[in-house]
Structure formats: structure tokens, C-alpha cells
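Fold this complex.
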Amino acid sequence: MTKFDEATQAIRVDENTYDVCLDPGYSIGGPLNGGYLMAVVLRAVVDDSPFEHPVSTTSQFHKAPAPGPAQVRVERLKAGRTAAFTRATLVQDGVAQIESLVTTATLHGAEPVYADPPGHRMPPAEQCVKLPDPKPESGMTLNAQMELLFDPPTIGWLGGEPTGRPEARAYFRMTEPQDPDPFVLALAIDALPPVVFSAGMRGWAPTVDLTWHLRALPAPGPLTLIGSGRLIADGWFDEDVEAWDATGRLVAQSRQLARVGRG
Amino acid sequence: MTKFDEATQAIRVDENTYDVCLDPGYSIGGPLNGGYLMAVVLRAVVDDSPFEHPVSTTSQFHKAPAPGPAQVRVERLKAGRTAAFTRATLVQDGVAQIESLVTTATLHGAEPVYADPPGHRMPPAEQCVKLPDPKPESGMTLNAQMELLFDPPTIGWLGGEPTGRPEARAYFRMTEPQDPDPFVLALAIDALPPVVFSAGMRGWAPTVDLTWHLRALPAPGPLTLIGSGRLIADGWFDEDVEAWDATGRLVAQSRQLARVGRG
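Structure:
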């Protein structure tokens, strides 16, 4: 069991409740990373489901739970022949923190009937760059859990040279060697810096809701994350992230609606 | 009040319940159109919210409700300064049919800070084509409610010439003149034929879940709907639809996960 597997463990305590322990190692400067929290929720949902894979997850982020004990309450809304539907609520100190709707099914890894190519070609990993290590006082503990190698222009904002477009692209792998699975994908799909940083904005950009679809089980090896946005207006922006596996297969798609930071 | 406004009316009966009457005029050959059903749900959610607009809606389609009386049960999960979160369930004969999570907020129509152009240019309306009128026995009553003018290649499948890619593009307006609003957008965003038809597949393609984001209030005039998909595999496909208003502004984005038809 990897540290990530342990940090996302969900232990059933009754028909509708799982105990979890939110790990301080997934903090983005105070709040815990949304992808990590979705992975925790999905551990409970998948355990409860007659199917194996979380093919669709929508999470609304109501509050920012603190590291420590919490519960995932699951309610199976319907189970059919090919899919089951679950409502899941992450609760801490009796207060609902994250509300999710999850569709589970079992993917069989059939060859695609149709597959678009990636919209962006990544430079080879050796031309990509890491973010500088965060200062210990920043509380950015998440960065130590994963290795992100960025397509350089998409972190030009770090040196005062944003590209002017909402975008972020990087290779992703866990620092502790672990083959990607649907739970790692939940983390990966929300692991990039907000795409609006590249459009010249800064500051805390809280996710309001995030939907992601698991499209195939990822092959072992690094993932490629391609993040983009279509519109920044009225204080809101969309962020789309695609995750491609090491064989060049699209394995996950996400879209989140988030607030532009004021910072 | 237009026929559509009437067909989507939701009348509060107690703190958490709205009565609705599902209109047989929105049938797609038996089942009612998912976008129409979302519009009905959103009438109740918006009425209940302290905010004006449904900026994010995720619906899981558990069953296919029949025309006739039904209820929308709303539960306000949280209301903050800029957004509120609601769980809404469409119930018929005591059975939950559609489960939704909705984020409401108030859009102010500010000029975009960043806006991508449309990925596809539509031919002028006079070069676009309608679908043939459905046979009365098909039960496709939805078609009479709206006028869709298609980019011709994207309905080539009708004459046995699919483009080979999942896609559908059309101009949209209500048959009974009505300026588009968020409820019309809920209908529009699910109004195109399944994009997989253009990839050579046929048959009933049921939506499993659909998430759409309202990005701006649409200007009066026709909408342009741009539908596409990235991957068809393992019996599942994604369908993305963008709605652009008559001034060329992106007003809505959707993604649904659906099953490939066996028909």
C-alpha cells in the first residue's frame, strides 16, 4: 500500500458511512487539494458499488475540510445493469463539506471505436521544467506527493511572462512510485495550477464544482495533463483538463467552474 | 408566457416541493428530452435560490419520467455570498427519476477578460438544412418546438454519409418566438441528435449524466450549437456542446456521458 493509498483509505463503519482520515500532506497552502478529496470520496463510493470504476464524478465544494478524521456518507440512488448512481457527502464535525454525484460502471478496456488525438503536443520530458520547491511556510505540502514536469511557456507566469491564455500542461507522476489508477486520476485531474495564472491572473482560485469522467483505465507510466479554458468573465472561469496515459490514450476529462482570485 | 414557459412551470407547494406537469410535447419518441427535464428542474431551483442564474447543473438520468404530473424536491445545501448549492430530485409517482446538483449565482454580464473564439465556423443559415419532419407515429414531438438548421455534413448520416467523426452543429431557435434565457439554454444544450450518429452509429443513445455551465446570459436571437466528442470506447461516449449567442458570445458549455446505442 502506497502513502497515497493509505491517505485515501475509507473504512466502512455502517451501511451508509465510511470513516476517513484527511491527510495534511495534500494541502495547497491551507485547504486540502480538491482532487485528493475526490479520491477519498471515490474510495468509499467504489467500495459500496456493484461496479468497479467511477466513470463520472461531480463534486460541489461547499467548505474546505481540515486534515483529520471525517466521514463519507454514501447513498446508492439506483443500480442498473451497466451503471450505478451514488450520492456521496464528505462530512466533518457533523458539517457537510463536499457533495458529490457519482456514476460507477465497469470499463473493459476495449479498443476505441473513435478517438481524437491530443489537441496539444508536449515537448519531451527533458525539455520540461519543475516548479520551484514551495517555501515550507507556504503550507504547500501537495507538491511533495507528485512530480509535475511543465511545458515551459505554461509556467511563464512564474517569471512574469504569462502566455495570455488560460492553459497549463505537464507530465504527472506520483513521487512514490505507483501506477496510475482511477484514484490517482482524481488527484491528477485537479493537480495543475489554475489555468488563469497563465492568462495573467493570480491569487486563490477556488473550485466551485468539478466534473470528471474516467474514460479508460490508465496504463502504467506517467500521465500527460493538458489544461485549458474557454472563457474568463464575470469573476468565473472554466478549466478543462484532459489526462492521457503513457500509451497516448485519453483516460480522463474534467471541467471545473471556478472563481477568479482577488489576490 | 410562451408554451415553453408554461411547459416548464414549477409551482411551490411547500418549503421543499414544487409541482410540475411534464409536457408530452417534448418527447423524443417515448422518453422526454433530457434538456427539457433539466429546464423544469431548474425552474424550481432558481425560484428557491437567493441568486438568479443556474451557473452549473449536473443531472443524472435514472429513469425516463412519463408526461404528466411530477414533483421537484429541492434541498438548499449551502448559500454563500456569491453562490448557492442545491440538490434537486425530479420525482414521479413517488420514484426518483432525475438527480441534480445545481450551483446558482448571479451573472452581471461584464465584458470577458478572456474569450476563445468558436472552434468551428458555421456556414450562413441559408446554406444550412432542416431535418425532415418526423413521422407522426415516431412520437418525436420535440422537433415541433424548435427550429434547428444544420451544418449539412453533420447530418450526412441521414443519407448514409456520416462524416466519420462525432459531431453536430446547428442554429437553434424556439418555434414560438422567445428570446433565449437560461431555461431555453437547458433545452438547447441537449437538443442536437447524438454526435455519435455522425460517427456512423445509430440507435437510442441514452444520456447517463450531463453537466452544463451557464457562462453568460444570451442576447436575443438564434443560438449556434457546436457539438463534438473526443472518444467512443467500451460502449460509452462523451458529447460536448457549446452554445453561442447571436452576438458571438459563448453562453453555455455542456458535457454528457452517454451509452452507444445498440439499435
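Chain B has a mean pLDDT of 96.
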